[in-house]
Amino acid sequence: MEPLVLSALSKPDRNAETPLAVQLYRDLLEAIRSGRARGRLPSSRVAAAALGLSRNTVNAAYELLRAEGAVAIRPGAAPEILPPAAAAPAPTEVEASPGPGRRGQAWAAGRSRSGGGIMAPGHPDEALFPRDDWAMHLRRAARRRLGRAFAYGEYSGLPALREVLARRLAADRGMQVTPDQILITPGSQASLALIALTLADPGDTALIEEPGYPGARAAFRGAGLTTLPLTVDAEGADVSAAARARLTYLTPANQYPMGHRLSLRRRAEALDHARASDGFLVEDDYDSEFHWHGREIAALQGMAPERVIALGTAAKALMPALRIGWIVAPSGLAGPLRAAQRNLGLAANVHAQAALAEFMETGRYRAHLRRIAKVYGERGRALAAALRSLPGIDVADPSGGVQIGFRLPESREAAALTALHSAGFGTAALSDYCLGRPQEGLITGFAEATPERIAHFTATLRRVLPTR
After folding, report:
1. Pairing outcome for strands 308-313 and 280-284
2. For 123, how many CA atoms within 13 A lie in the half-sphere containing its CB?
3. Domain for residue 69, yes or no?
4. Phi first, then psi: what are they for 427, rounded to 5°?
């Protein structure tokens, strides 16, 4: 067999970023696999002279070829080229990966058709984020020794954050809570998944407001629960005709997304229903920091702390990407939930927790809330007034929150959604928030609703609505 001419197979470039040995290895490997190189490679001395390289460089390339299974090297002999890997011929078609299981499909389903743009439901205004205060507290948190929390201790939340939260929730929301009942999570969605997987069995029933939060539906269905809708009217969710349920998801302070408050009568009925079902109420107190008119009603948890599991989040007051939420669990369930949280890996960032605890403790957090609540209240009322000027839209001023939901006339949801998404708005379809018969309408945030954006939003919507 004719000796190999290495210069015909490889021309290593000294000016390239890739090391010379790697260049030579790659060129020779391609030649071997393509069948252009057979027999034996020249000795490292001969190869180095032919290519103008050092013997160390050639030997490094040959070692890489041996590790690849392309050559055999024996002391005193030139490297022997092995036949291309005795692998089966490449298939003519790319093999498709298996799909997800039924539970995976359930976890992946049920998200809303949001355009991902401005004024999306639930989005705070990034321009109002307290950057300087947060940076100061975060720097201090990063410099502090964490002790047990440095590794896997305090998995369910730093004691400092749980303590300040317990005081705030008792004073501001009327909850009956101790620090030991609080679990810090990566957000409301993680909290819902943890509750569904820990406190219910596949096949159990979960009740969800109609229209209601799609994240609750996704978490409950992902855990294998059967989800049924609860009718919502001006008094909030109605459980009077509901089936027995292990979990009942409610947003009593500010119904998501229609903005109603759960009346005292309905609250008592919901608690009676949970007791009769031997189940739990899941109270999502997602944006209770923002209330602008009417008498504020205390959290449902304060009425029955052993029957209500309360959820909260820093997403609206600060930012969703902070990934901090919390669960207030009945005292007898806090232990099992903590153990399940550890096994599921649902921990929140420790430095963010420490910064938030200090931010709350200093009083700066409360000052920040007062500032943004005033701005959001003004923007919400301005958006509602502009919407009422459009034909066929009837919407009240928001009593809280950072989004507003409203119904549309004459099946205009699809056209309105397309037009608003094209204009850069993150509006969601009300029908995506329904379990049963779809109700057509839109849900939009107003935390980012400046006068210019409100004018653009209503002008875009007006074009797809019927004339009077």
Report:
1. parallel
2. 21
3. yes
4. -60, 145
Nearest to 278 by CA among 200, 195, 182: 200
CATH number of domain containing 432: 3.90.1150.10
Q: How many CA atoms lie within 13 A of 120 on its CB side?
A: 14
13-28 pLDDT per residue, tens = 888 888 888 999 999 8
Q: What are phi and psi of 306, to 5 degrees?
A: -90, -5
How far is 327 from 348, CA to CA, in rounded Å? Answer: 12
Residue 117 tokens, joined: 């743009």
What is the band of 308 on the pLDDT scale with cuts at 50, 70, 90? very high
pLDDT value, residue 116: 73
> Distance between terminal CA atoms of the chain?
91
Q: What is the CATH number for 192?
A: 3.40.640.10
Same domain? For 309 and 384 the reply is no
Residues 403, 336, single domain; the answer is: no
Query: Rounded to the nearest 5°, which phi and psi values hold at 333?
Result: -105, -10
Whether 321 maps to a domain, the answer reads: yes
Based on the fold, state whether residues 353 and 386 are members of the same structural domain: no
Q: Give tens-digit pLDDT for 119-155.
A: 999 899 999 999 999 999 999 999 988 888 888 889 9
Residue 202: which residues within 8 A CB-CB, separation 6 or more?
A: 223, 224, 225
Range of the domain at 457: 367-462
Q: Which residue has the tokens 């949801």?
A: 413
Same domain for 300 and 371? no
User: Quick one: 321 and 395 in the same domain?
Assistant: no
pTM for the structure as a whole: 0.78
